[in-house]
Amino acid sequence: MLNVATILLGAFFIIAGANHVTHAGFYVRIVPPWLPAHASLVQISGVCEILGGIGVLLHRTRRIAGVGLVTLLVAVFPANLQMALHPQLYRDVGTPLAFYIRLPIQLFFIAWVWWTCLRSR
User: Fold this and answer.
1) pTM score, two decimals?
2) Number of domains in the chain
3) Separation CA 107–CA 113 (nearest Å)
4) What's the CA angle centered on 110, arms 114 and 55, to 5 degrees?
C-alpha cells in the first residue's frame, strides 16, 4: 500500500528528473569541470530520477529503486559541492549560504529514500 511519504517521494523524483531533462542547461553548468560529458550526465541523471520515482511507486520495484536513488544522490553530490565551493559562478541562482545549506539537505533526501524504500519492515 502506498503512503503519503512514498507518493511524495516518487512524485518528487519524477518531477526533478523531468526538470533535469527539460531544463538541462542549468544542471550542465553545475557539473564539476573534472567530469566528462556534462550534458550526457545531466540527461542520464534525469532519466534515472524519473525511473527511480516510478520505481518507488511500484511495490515490486521499490527496494531496487531505493538503492538506485541513494546511489544517484551520492553521485550528484559533487555538483552541489561545486556550487558551494564556487558560489561566484552561480550568483544568478542563489547565495553562498543557500548552496551550503543544500549540502546537508542531500542527507535528508538519502534518509527519506532509505526510510521509504530500504528499511526493514
Assistant:
1) 0.92
2) 1
3) 10
4) 60
